[in-house]
């Protein structure tokens, strides 16, 4: 995929995707009975004006069509806002790259209000101040841990478009956010910035996190399974803001010290949310660039690959059929060919089921097979070890 082609097509594609989100919102997922917690995040997009096509004035647009008709917008470069969370001991998401957001409080009227409040509190960005257009939401998802067996909360992602050509001032909450970064959308879509993130497998499985038994459990998991490997994107910000009042800025803490020497990677839950948006854009297959989580150990990696092969094929096919990008492309093709009636909003008469998370579709049932694959691998190791010991004893032990 050529970067110049992507830069040319991305503005109309972004307009199309945002209009689709506004007109066809996905259904809200109710909280599981055992997990009433809900959280909301904000995917905030802005257009960086090209140096040779700066806006002549700051005329405000009241809707998406008026905004994307502006000459400076048509020549601009879309960017997304990410935050890097502050390093905090015991925090599951310490130092992670994330979208602004947090847990819904009792005073919040709904999930949308929680996203707006959290963005204001964490980043100082007012999404209700007249300089942002609410563009709907992406599919909700149930956040789990321990390989999908323990639900934590329902996450509700909302999308906003900041309409000013000038970057909004950000005022970071130092106890929550270490830095904030505007990242060009074209770099997020480029294969050049795709990489992997490796993490301690015990962080995903060990329910007992503290105490002697917790240390023994984590040590055993590390020894048996090694590390897990996840898809990731290396971020290349165009503009960054740092919280000079936070402990990460000049702190000597273990977590903070390590974080400064590492590249910023978008992975895990946040990458899943953003991938749901990516798949609505051109030059992208469903969840393009996203790969299934796996292990670094060669034997368990091979067993997981073999045992999940059929499931992965079925899930990819389901994701392709449910891809919003494909639905939009088919609708546009029908419009061009005049083969179907077109309604007042300009969309073809395609039957669409409820939109769900593409990554959620791909991962459905995956960890159930992974757990079985782990036990198969450990059993195989036991057999091989026992056979090796028996062979050595048979060869040398009888003499």
Automatic annotation (TrEMBL):
Top-level division of the source organism's lineage: Eukaryota
Annotated transmembrane regions: 373-394
UniProt-listed Pfam families: NUDIX (PF00293)
InterPro entries: CoAse, NUDIX_hydrolase-like_dom_sf, NUDIX_hydrolase_dom
Every Nudix hydrolase domain range: 36-207
CDD domains xrefs: NUDIX_CoAse_Nudt7 (cd03426)
Keyword Secreted: no
Keywords, sorted A to Z: Membrane, Transmembrane, Transmembrane helix
UniProt entry tagged with the keyword Phosphoprotein: no
Protein name, entry field: Nudix hydrolase domain-containing protein
Native source organism of the sequence: Discina gigas
